[in-house]
Amino acid sequence: MLHITMIGCGAIGLGVLELLEQDPHLLVERVIVPPGSEEAIGQRLARRSSPPQVVTALPEDARPDLLLECAGHQALEEHVLPALEKGIACLIVSVGALSQPGLVERLEAAAERGNTRIELLPGAIGGIDALSAARVGGLDSVDYTGRKPPRAWKNTPGEQACDLEHISEATVIFQGSAREAARLYPRNANVAATLSLAGIGLDRTRVTLIADPHSEENVHQFQARGAFGGFELNLRGRPLAANPKTSALTVYSIIRALGNHAHGISI
Ligand SMILES: NC(=O)C1=CN([C@@H]2O[C@H](COP(=O)(O)OP(=O)(O)OC[C@H]3O[C@@H](n4cnc5c(N)ncnc54)[C@H](OP(=O)(O)O)[C@@H]3O)[C@@H](O)[C@H]2O)C=CC1
Ligand SMILES: O=C([O-])CC(=O)C(=O)O
User: Fold this and answer.
1) Which residue puts its alpha carbon closest to atom 43 of ligand 1?
2) Cβ pair 250, 188 in contact under 8 A
């Protein structure tokens, strides 16, 4: 059985706990939450059959088999970097954090010193295997469009770009590089960052973000061109009820990745 510590217990974290109850090979034994929320989250988890321990940092002597991040960009600096140094393998979904200059190099160096690995999960998007394979032959362009209902852009700079409550047509709220998208939209542009890191980088990947009052889904589209040929993907993700910014596929992507670590066959 693999022992997992999970960072963050919000929409994704609760979804992961729910689904892992079915799998005897995987146990979330501990969750790391922000200081001040231990009691509320502890009470929420107490109803579960085997509730994880709730802490605000990884205990000094703890050595989980895997550390799973589903908290937000800040958690990489706070929890993932020190865990890698200690030799703990980490899986992350807040991939947009890697747009911060120097963080990729620091994560890589920490993993090397700890003789371990950090895995960037595909989360809400698919096709990362094909895109990163295509990169080997050379890529000319990758263009990404993220389209979500207006409620998914609340508390983002999208509020300054348009009147989210009253738009009647699909409205472009951002156009620029994936690096800029990930910085301005940390909770909505992790897919843009993932595509960039698999493809032609954060500065060359062109991103368009759209608030669309006619969409009930989080739609992720990209086109890639290169020596391999061409590739288009259009993924219509169902948002999680607990967080309209986040697609349900992100939870399933985590379950798949954890299963691949625990089971005899990985796919
Ligand atoms: N790769 C992908 O495709 C996707 C990636 N994501 C990433 O996953 C993250 C989580 O998504 P989701 O679950 O929907 O968000 P939620 O806001 O529902 O949950 C995040 C939880 O993590 C907690 N948290 C925040 N910072 C820390 C920290 N430093 N240490 C421990 N806990 C922390 C939050 O606490 P509090 O509310 O008190 O701040 C909250 O309870 C997103 O912020 C985004 O970065 C999301 C969707 C897709
Ligand atoms: O869950 C999604 O649809 C994608 C998302 O939020 C992100 O890219 O950060």
Assistant:
1) 72
2) no
What's the length of the chain? 267
Closest by CA to 223, choosing from 121, 124, 139, is: 139
Closest ligand relative to 9 C-alpha: 1
25 is catalytic: no
Query: Can you give the pTM of this predicted structure?
Result: 0.97
Q: How many Å lie between the centroid of ligand 2 and the Cα of residue 115?
A: 30
Count Cβ neighbours within 10 Å for each residue of 73-93 and write b for 16 or more, e otherwise.
bebbebbbbebbebebbbbbb
CA 219 to CA 222: how far, in whole Å? 10
Query: Quick one: CA dihedral 201, 99, 255, 125, positive or negative?
Result: negative
ipTM of the complex: 0.99
Measured at the CA of 73, the angle between CA 220 and CA 128, to 5 degrees, comes to 35
The finding on whether 74 has its CB within 6 A of some atom of ligand 1 is: yes
- Rounded Cα distance between 199 and 206, Å, is 11
Give first-to-last CA distance, the chain, whole Å: 19
| Span 104-118, pLDDT tens digits | 999 999 999 999 999
pLDDT of 176 > 90? The answer is: yes
130 near 199, Cβ under 8 Å?
no
Of all protein residues, the one whose alpha carbon is nearest to atom 25 of ligand 1 is 71
